[in-house]
Amino acid sequence: MIEVKNLTKIFNRGKFNETAALVDVSLKVRDRSIVALTGPSGCGKTTLLSMMGLILTPTSGEILYDGESVLRASDYWRTQFRRQNFGFIFQHINLLPQYTTLENVLLPLYSSDLAPGEYEGKAREWFSRLGIADRADHLVEQLSGGEQQRAAFVRALIKDPMYIFADEPTVFVDEETSRLIYGIFSSLRDSGKTIVLSTHDPELMKLADEVFRFSKGRLC
Ligand SMILES: Nc1ncnc2c1ncn2[C@@H]1O[C@H](COP(=O)(O)OP(=O)(O)OP(=O)(O)O)[C@@H](O)[C@H]1O
Ligand SMILES: [Mg+2]
Hints:
four-stranded antiparallel sheet; about 30% helix; about 25% strand; alpha/beta; single chain; 7 helices; binds magnesium ion; six-stranded mixed sheet; globular; binds adenosine-5'-triphosphate; Rossmann fold
């Protein structure tokens, strides 16, 4: 269970460009569920996902994983926890353009205690499943937006993480690939994973066990 308690994020505090991106948000994410965050552009979805994924530090509030406050832990502990348990699919994809699709998936494994070579077969299986097997050895800068989004999926899922954070995961893909992605999220949930995503996609919201709507940084 993930518990978010009174979470607030103020960017550029005290400056002319101060922005209250998230204000006093509390919510719970049950294990083995899909939770969707939705709301207009700028309402705080990415900010919340980044804080839940321990990429961004809140201004105030608490985040608990299975009852443990993760914000009070050391930076080292948080980094380890994130590496071991989280898969993150970024809104802006964030692949390295000068590396191949396969390299992009395997490179992050070098920062863990894992042997990247052992994951190549698994990566190629995922590429096939997502219809990009023939792009595995192409440079990412030569991939279409939808192909890059699918590559970002593989990078997030390769380590079989317990929690998956997906920021607008179907914006760049066609309907057929969207359906494939709905199927992948469903089977991840069936296999015990917890998925928190942000989306405007009505089909993805239908798939979710719970939908939280935001407006100007607040739950509504
Ligand atoms: N690093 C930052 N520095 C300053 N302000 C920021 C930063 N990141 C986000 N913001 C502001 O915080 C607010 C929430 O941004 P956020 O990216 O969380 O929105 P979002 O709901 O994900 O929007 P979108 O649907 O466009 O992706 C916005 O007003 C944005 O301008
Ligand atoms: Mg966003």
